[in-house]
Amino acid sequence: MSAQLQSTTSAQSIPSYLHADDLGPWGNYLRQVDRVAPYLGSSSRWIETLKRPKRILIVDVPIELDNGTVAHFEGYRVQHNVSRGPGKGGVRYHQDVTLSEVMALSAWMSVKNAAVNVPYGGAKGGIRVDPRTLSRGELERVTRRYTSEIGIIIGPNTDIPAPDVNTNEQIMAWMMDTYSMNQGQTATGVVTGKPITLGGSLGRREATGRGVFVVGTEAARRTGLEIKGARIAVQGFGNVGGIAARLFEEAGAKVVAVQDHTGALHKSSGIDTHALLEHVANTGGVGGFKGADPVSNDEFWTIESDILIPAALENQITEKNAAKIKTKIVVEGANGPTTTAADDILHDKGVLVIPDVVANAGGVTVSYFEWVQDFSSFFWTEDEINQRLERVMREAFSAVWQVASDNKVSMRTAAFIVACKRILMAREMRGLYP
Ligand code: GLU
Predict the structure, then answer these.
(1) What is the DSSP pairing of strand 293-295 with strand 329-331?
(2) Cβ neighbourhood burial of 229 (10 Å; 0-12, 13-18, 19+)
(3) The pLDDT value given to residue 10
(4) Across 352-360, average pLDDT
(5) Which atom of ligand 1 is nearest to the CA of 88?
(6) 3-class SS at 403?
(7) Domains of the chain (ranges plus CATH)?
(8) 310, 262 in Cβ contact below 8 A?
(9) Considering the entire predicted model, what is its pTM?
(10) pLDDT digits (tens, 9 = 90+) for 299-339
(11) What is the predicted pLDDT for the residue at 13?
């Protein structure tokens, strides 16, 4: 049954606007869905739903540059699934953004939101632009034009963007303002991850990193790993990796290796994460930090650790480096950092992988809290937010852990089982209309 399912779905699920050899992250996502199909019972009737984004918008984003010329950027907003609620997911600014990538990221949002049971579907957006090449004025103009272009499909009840790679609170403020001005009324709930003064939530900035820390400690507890003295390696030292590293250090662990787009560092006695965060805030990356030894990017992957946190981009752990990785637990702070082939290699080596759709769900969980606070115009304390976040993350972890041990499958397949069942059950109950 699964072979037949696979052959029908894989042929159909390569949409005509994507070439088979350009599947990229979307291909990785499709393979993950194929693995879950045999566990979906009667819901598998609807599985094709997961293999087709509901709605894709490609927009031209023209802006006037500071030098008077006009530049055009390509932007996307993909709503993968809205069966369980409005679309929800971040917006990424990066020179390598592609449609395949945004499609995969939107699908992972559907799975993530269902895995932690927040009442959203999945969506994602992006602009193919290197924001480091833009002035502040140009960045604002790109953001406002993009928001206007996707304004026809976003809204507080339809699709709610948030920060992702290279986007932040200021960009969310411009998005909120642009949408609101076009609507003729202030609609704070149209985006999350906003500044606190504009309806943002306490704890949102740290939420993804905090969630990574919570599930990392939960995975350690279940496998008998002591956090005190545990060796942590982190790829990406931004809002996710940097915060997670700091929290692990505060809990008594040692951050022994760090890598980002500016370089890689090693220090077996533990890097001072506060000093490194300050260095990154001042220079834009970990490269050049004096408090640890510089190593090559290849060496970074071979450094022995107890917990490895890929918290940068997709496709970082591949068949090229997976065999060399010496760690016990991988906690995916990034979306899609591990390819399917690498997943299998890690599994065979006995490495426990806590998948992105659970591990980095802290961000969207506090986004949900922010959205609820905006609607009720009543704001919670940071303690309340962190406690609720911890509860959601621990409950999601436990449910997935249980399904993994019951079915003897990886945590990723288990998370997909939990999530896809929720999505497809909603799909089935709503029925087809018109
Ligand atoms: N960009 C984050 C993610 O990938 C957060 C999305 C959100 O808060 O909507 O989960």
Answers:
(1) unpaired
(2) exposed
(3) 52
(4) 98
(5) 9
(6) helix
(7) 1-52 (no CATH), 53-184 (3.40.50.10860), 205-359 (3.40.50.720)
(8) no
(9) 0.95
(10) 999 999 999 999 999 999 999 999 999 999 999 999 999 99
(11) 61
Ligand 1 pocket test: which of 364, 366, 372, 389 has the largest number of ligand atoms within 8 Å of its C-beta? 364
CA 430 – ligand 1 centroid, Å = 26
Per-residue pLDDT reduced to its tens digit, 7-26 = 344 555 677 777 666 678 99
Residues with Cβ within 8 Å of residue 395, at least 6 apart in sequence = none
DSSP line for 126-172:
EEE--GGGS-HHHHHHHHHHHHHHHTTT-BTTTEE--B-TT--HHHH
**∠ Cα 44 352 359 (to 5°):** 70
- How far is ligand 1, taken at its centre, from the CA of residue 71, in Å? 28
Q: Is 267 a catalytic residue?
A: no
Rounded distance from Cα 269 to ligand 1 centre (Å): 33
Peptide bond into 434 cis (omega under 30): yes
Q: Which of 40, 179, 48, 52 is nearest to 106 (CA)?
A: 52
Which residues form the pocket of ligand 1, taking CB atoms under 6 Å from any ligand atom?
88-90, 162, 164, 192, 335, 360, 363-364, 367
Sign of CA dihedral 326, 330, 335, 340: positive
Place of tokens 């942590």: 232
